[in-house]
Amino acid sequence: MHCFAPDCNHQSESHCCQFFLFPNPVKKKEENRRWVRLLRRDDRDPNKYSKVCSCHFKDGKKSNDPTIFERNANKLFPSQEPPVQKKKKPDSEAKLPAVKDILASISATTPAESSETQDESTTPPTEQIIFEAELHLAKLELSSQQDTIQYQKTHYSVSMMTSEVIRMEAGLPTKEIFTIVVDYAAKYRDSISYYCGWKVESITFEDQIFITLMKLRQNYTNTHLAQLFSCSVGTI
Ligand SMILES: [Zn+2]
Ligand SMILES: [Zn+2]
Predict the structure, then answer these.
(1) Residue 138: per-residue pLDDT
(2) Alpha-carbon distance 57 to 42, whole Å?
(3) pLDDT reported for residue 26
(4) Which residues have C-beta under 5 Å from ligand 2, the single-atom ion?
Protein backbone atom coordinates (compact mmCIF):
# COMPACT_ATOMS: atom_id res chain seq x y z
CA MET A 1 0.00 0.00 0.00
CA HIS A 2 1.43 3.37 -1.16
CA CYS A 3 0.86 6.62 0.67
CA PHE A 4 -1.61 8.77 -1.29
CA ALA A 5 0.26 12.02 -0.56
CA PRO A 6 2.15 13.46 -3.54
CA ASP A 7 5.96 13.34 -3.25
CA CYS A 8 5.75 10.58 -0.66
CA ASN A 9 7.15 7.15 -1.40
CA HIS A 10 6.24 5.55 1.90
CA GLN A 11 4.72 2.09 1.69
CA SER A 12 3.01 0.17 4.42
CA GLU A 13 5.22 -2.81 3.58
CA SER A 14 8.57 -1.06 4.08
CA HIS A 15 7.87 1.85 6.42
CA CYS A 16 6.93 1.73 10.04
CA CYS A 17 4.63 4.78 9.97
CA GLN A 18 0.91 4.24 10.35
CA PHE A 19 -1.42 4.34 7.35
CA PHE A 20 -4.76 6.12 7.69
CA LEU A 21 -7.72 5.33 5.48
CA PHE A 22 -9.43 8.33 3.85
CA PRO A 23 -12.49 9.51 5.79
CA ASN A 24 -15.67 8.03 4.40
CA PRO A 25 -16.83 10.32 1.52
CA VAL A 26 -20.47 9.89 2.54
CA LYS A 27 -20.44 9.69 6.32
CA LYS A 28 -17.54 12.08 6.80
CA LYS A 29 -17.95 14.19 3.71
CA GLU A 30 -16.46 17.40 5.17
CA GLU A 31 -13.37 15.68 6.48
CA ASN A 32 -12.90 13.77 3.26
CA ARG A 33 -13.05 16.96 1.19
CA ARG A 34 -10.64 18.66 3.54
CA TRP A 35 -8.12 15.88 3.09
CA VAL A 36 -8.46 16.04 -0.68
CA ARG A 37 -7.91 19.79 -0.58
CA LEU A 38 -4.94 19.58 1.76
CA LEU A 39 -3.25 16.79 -0.19
CA ARG A 40 -3.54 18.69 -3.50
CA ARG A 41 -3.25 15.63 -5.60
CA ASP A 42 -4.39 16.80 -9.02
CA ASP A 43 -3.77 13.65 -11.00
CA ARG A 44 -6.34 11.44 -9.31
CA ASP A 45 -9.01 11.24 -6.63
CA PRO A 46 -8.76 8.94 -3.65
CA ASN A 47 -10.75 5.73 -3.74
CA LYS A 48 -12.07 3.79 -0.78
CA TYR A 49 -8.74 2.02 -0.34
CA SER A 50 -6.57 5.14 -0.42
CA LYS A 51 -4.47 5.77 2.65
CA VAL A 52 -2.21 8.55 3.86
CA CYS A 53 0.76 7.82 6.07
CA SER A 54 1.04 9.31 9.54
CA CYS A 55 4.18 11.27 8.56
CA HIS A 56 1.83 13.97 7.17
CA PHE A 57 -0.10 14.40 10.39
CA LYS A 58 0.98 16.60 13.26
CA ASP A 59 1.99 14.32 16.15
CA GLY A 60 1.10 11.42 13.86
CA LYS A 61 -2.54 11.77 14.83
CA LYS A 62 -5.26 11.20 12.26
CA SER A 63 -7.50 13.81 13.89
CA ASN A 64 -4.99 16.55 13.05
CA ASP A 65 -5.59 16.33 9.29
CA PRO A 66 -2.74 15.85 6.80
CA THR A 67 -0.79 19.10 6.78
CA ILE A 68 2.89 18.13 6.58
CA PHE A 69 4.23 17.78 3.06
CA GLU A 70 7.52 17.86 1.23
CA ARG A 71 6.44 20.99 -0.64
CA ASN A 72 6.24 23.14 2.49
CA ALA A 73 9.19 21.69 4.35
CA ASN A 74 11.16 24.93 3.87
CA LYS A 75 8.34 27.36 4.39
CA LEU A 76 7.81 29.41 7.49
CA PHE A 77 5.05 28.34 9.79
CA PRO A 78 3.15 30.81 11.93
CA SER A 79 4.91 29.59 15.06
CA GLN A 80 8.29 30.39 13.53
CA GLU A 81 7.48 33.82 12.18
CA PRO A 82 9.90 36.62 12.98
CA PRO A 83 8.80 39.15 15.61
CA VAL A 84 6.88 42.13 14.30
CA GLN A 85 9.19 45.01 13.45
CA LYS A 86 9.25 47.99 15.73
CA LYS A 87 9.08 50.66 13.05
CA LYS A 88 5.54 51.49 14.07
CA LYS A 89 4.51 54.88 15.33
CA PRO A 90 3.48 55.05 18.97
CA ASP A 91 -0.16 55.77 18.17
CA SER A 92 -0.51 52.62 16.09
CA GLU A 93 0.61 50.78 19.20
CA ALA A 94 -2.72 51.61 20.76
CA LYS A 95 -4.55 50.14 17.81
CA LEU A 96 -2.70 46.86 17.99
CA PRO A 97 -5.01 45.11 20.46
CA ALA A 98 -7.93 45.89 18.19
CA VAL A 99 -6.11 44.30 15.27
CA LYS A 100 -5.47 41.24 17.38
CA ASP A 101 -9.13 41.14 18.27
CA ILE A 102 -10.05 41.26 14.63
CA LEU A 103 -7.65 38.48 13.79
CA ALA A 104 -8.94 36.47 16.71
CA SER A 105 -12.51 36.95 15.63
CA ILE A 106 -11.61 35.94 12.09
CA SER A 107 -10.01 32.73 13.24
CA ALA A 108 -12.85 32.15 15.69
CA THR A 109 -15.49 32.35 12.99
CA THR A 110 -13.63 30.15 10.52
CA PRO A 111 -11.44 27.90 12.66
CA ALA A 112 -11.10 25.03 10.20
CA GLU A 113 -10.29 27.16 7.20
CA SER A 114 -7.79 29.48 8.82
CA SER A 115 -5.75 26.74 10.45
CA GLU A 116 -5.77 24.91 7.19
CA THR A 117 -4.58 27.83 5.13
CA GLN A 118 -1.88 28.62 7.65
CA ASP A 119 -0.67 25.07 7.54
CA GLU A 120 -0.59 25.08 3.80
CA SER A 121 1.32 28.33 3.73
CA THR A 122 -0.54 29.48 0.65
CA THR A 123 -1.86 32.64 2.29
CA PRO A 124 0.30 35.71 2.73
CA PRO A 125 2.45 35.71 5.86
CA THR A 126 0.79 36.69 9.13
CA GLU A 127 2.62 40.01 9.17
CA GLN A 128 1.02 41.00 5.92
CA ILE A 129 -2.42 40.08 7.22
CA ILE A 130 -1.84 42.22 10.30
CA PHE A 131 -0.69 45.06 8.11
CA GLU A 132 -3.76 44.79 5.91
CA ALA A 133 -6.05 44.68 8.93
CA GLU A 134 -4.37 47.78 10.32
CA LEU A 135 -4.70 49.57 7.03
CA HIS A 136 -8.37 48.70 6.96
CA LEU A 137 -8.83 50.04 10.51
CA ALA A 138 -7.04 53.26 9.65
CA LYS A 139 -9.29 53.72 6.64
CA LEU A 140 -12.38 53.14 8.72
CA GLU A 141 -11.22 55.65 11.30
CA LEU A 142 -10.47 58.20 8.62
CA SER A 143 -13.83 57.81 6.96
CA SER A 144 -15.70 58.10 10.25
CA GLN A 145 -13.77 61.28 11.01
CA GLN A 146 -14.61 62.59 7.58
CA ASP A 147 -18.26 61.78 8.18
CA THR A 148 -18.22 63.72 11.42
CA ILE A 149 -16.56 66.73 9.80
CA GLN A 150 -18.99 66.55 6.90
CA TYR A 151 -21.88 66.39 9.35
CA GLN A 152 -20.62 69.40 11.27
CA LYS A 153 -20.15 71.34 8.04
CA THR A 154 -23.59 70.69 6.66
CA HIS A 155 -25.63 70.69 9.86
CA TYR A 156 -26.26 73.21 12.55
CA SER A 157 -25.04 70.77 15.19
CA VAL A 158 -25.06 71.00 18.94
CA SER A 159 -21.59 69.40 19.03
CA MET A 160 -20.16 72.68 17.66
CA MET A 161 -22.00 74.97 20.02
CA THR A 162 -20.82 76.76 23.11
CA SER A 163 -22.67 76.77 26.40
CA GLU A 164 -24.00 80.27 25.69
CA VAL A 165 -25.71 79.20 22.49
CA ILE A 166 -27.17 76.14 24.18
CA ARG A 167 -28.43 78.30 27.03
CA MET A 168 -30.09 80.66 24.61
CA GLU A 169 -31.61 78.01 22.38
CA ALA A 170 -32.60 75.28 24.79
CA GLY A 171 -32.75 77.01 28.14
CA LEU A 172 -30.22 74.72 29.81
CA PRO A 173 -27.47 76.38 31.86
CA THR A 174 -24.39 74.58 30.48
CA LYS A 175 -23.28 72.17 27.82
CA GLU A 176 -22.48 69.63 30.54
CA ILE A 177 -26.11 69.60 31.65
CA PHE A 178 -27.20 69.19 28.06
CA THR A 179 -24.87 66.18 27.79
CA ILE A 180 -26.45 64.72 30.93
CA VAL A 181 -29.90 65.20 29.41
CA VAL A 182 -28.78 63.46 26.22
CA ASP A 183 -27.30 60.55 28.17
CA TYR A 184 -30.47 60.26 30.14
CA ALA A 185 -32.60 60.33 27.00
CA ALA A 186 -30.33 57.79 25.31
CA LYS A 187 -31.44 55.19 27.87
CA TYR A 188 -34.93 55.44 26.45
CA ARG A 189 -33.77 55.69 22.88
CA ASP A 190 -35.17 52.34 21.82
CA SER A 191 -38.59 53.20 23.15
CA ILE A 192 -38.82 56.47 21.22
CA SER A 193 -41.33 56.09 18.45
CA TYR A 194 -40.95 58.56 15.64
CA TYR A 195 -43.82 59.90 13.64
CA CYS A 196 -45.23 57.19 11.33
CA GLY A 197 -42.48 54.79 12.46
CA TRP A 198 -39.73 56.71 10.67
CA LYS A 199 -36.12 56.00 11.38
CA VAL A 200 -34.26 59.26 11.86
CA GLU A 201 -30.63 58.83 10.86
CA SER A 202 -29.78 62.07 9.08
CA ILE A 203 -29.51 63.90 12.40
CA THR A 204 -27.46 62.75 15.38
CA PHE A 205 -29.30 61.73 18.52
CA GLU A 206 -28.00 64.66 20.56
CA ASP A 207 -29.17 67.06 17.87
CA GLN A 208 -32.59 65.42 17.88
CA ILE A 209 -32.80 66.14 21.61
CA PHE A 210 -31.55 69.65 21.04
CA ILE A 211 -34.14 70.29 18.33
CA THR A 212 -36.87 69.07 20.66
CA LEU A 213 -35.65 71.39 23.44
CA MET A 214 -35.37 74.30 21.01
CA LYS A 215 -38.88 73.75 19.84
CA LEU A 216 -40.24 73.59 23.37
CA ARG A 217 -38.32 76.64 24.51
CA GLN A 218 -38.41 78.90 21.47
CA ASN A 219 -41.50 77.60 19.74
CA TYR A 220 -39.65 77.71 16.41
CA THR A 221 -41.56 76.65 13.35
CA ASN A 222 -40.64 73.32 11.77
CA THR A 223 -39.52 75.15 8.63
CA HIS A 224 -37.08 77.25 10.63
CA LEU A 225 -35.63 74.19 12.38
CA ALA A 226 -35.38 72.26 9.12
CA GLN A 227 -33.37 75.11 7.63
CA LEU A 228 -31.06 75.33 10.61
CA PHE A 229 -30.33 71.60 10.60
CA SER A 230 -30.34 71.17 6.81
CA CYS A 231 -33.01 68.54 6.78
CA SER A 232 -36.54 68.23 5.49
CA VAL A 233 -39.50 69.72 7.32
CA GLY A 234 -40.87 66.19 7.53
CA THR A 235 -37.85 65.00 9.50
CA ILE A 236 -38.45 67.66 12.15
ZN1 LIG B 1 3.30 9.61 3.19
ZN1 LIG C 1 5.33 7.86 6.26
Answers:
(1) 79
(2) 20
(3) 95
(4) 10, 17, 53, 55
